[in-house]
Design brief:
Layout lengths: L25 E4 L14 E6 L15 E7 L1 H4 L7 E3 L5 E3 L12 E12 L2 E5 L8 E7 L2 H4 L10
Antiparallel strand pairs: 1-2, 1-8, 2-7, 3-6, 3-8, 4-5, 6-7
Length: 156
C-alpha cells in the first residue's frame, strides 16, 4: 500500500513548438565560394567556433571523424523550392530523397574527417559546405550509431 505513494507520475510530453530558433556556434571557412554538386572529398575546411564554444569541443580531437550540422543559408533565398527533383540518371524523386540544399529547412549534415583541433578551430576534410556557412552543431562520429552496414541505396 505504501509503495503507491512513491511512484513517479507518468511522463506527459508537452506539445512541440511549431517554430524553432537556432543560433550558429561557428562558421565554415574554406576556399569554396559557391555550392557545387560534387568534389568535396578532398576539400579542407576550418570550422571556427565562437570562443564561448571552444571548451565544449575539448576531447573532440580524440575522434577520427565528426558529424557537422550546418544551415545552408544561401538556399533560403533560392528562386525555387521544388518538391521534386530530377536525378542525373533522369529519375525524378521527392526532394527529401536527394542531398540537395533546397530542402524544407535547409539543413546540411556531413560526416567528415577531423584532422585536428586548435582551441576553437576544428580542421576537417570532406565537409560539403561553402565558405561562411553557419555551423549549428558538431558531434563525434560513432560507428555503433552512425554506420549502418546493411544500408540500402537505389541504383542510379
Amino acid at each position: 500500500m505504501l509503495l503507491r505513494f512513491f511512484r513517479r507520475p507518468r511522463f506527459q510530453r508537452p506539445p512541440p513548438s511549431s517554430k524553432i530558433t537556432l543560433t550558429p556556434i561557428g562558421w565554415v571557412r574554406n576556399r569554396r565560394p559557391r555550392p557545387h554538386p560534387r568534389g568535396w572529398e578532398r576539400l579542407r575546411s576550418r570550422i571556427e567556433l565562437l570562443p564561448e564554444h571552444a571548451p565544449k569541443a575539448e576531447g573532440l580531437e580524440r575522434y577520427s571523424h565528426v558529424v557537422v550540422v550546418c544551415y545552408l543559408d544561401l538556399a533560403e533565398s533560392a528562386p525555387e523550392h521544388p518538391a521534386r527533383m530530377r536525378l542525373p540518371s533522369g529519375r525524378e524523386v521527392g526532394i527529401l530523397a536527394t542531398r540537395s540544399q533546397l530542402r524544407p529547412n535547409h539543413l546540411g549534415v556531413s560526416v567528415c574527417r577531423l584532422l585536428g583541433r586548435e582551441g576553437a578551430v576544428l580542421h576537417v576534410v570532406g565537409l560539403d559546405a561553402i565558405d561562411g556557412t553557419p555551423v549549428l552543431d558538431v558531434k563525434p562520429y560513432l560507428p555503433a550509431y552512425d554506420a549502418v552496414p546493411d544500408a540500402r541505396v537505389p541504383d542510379a
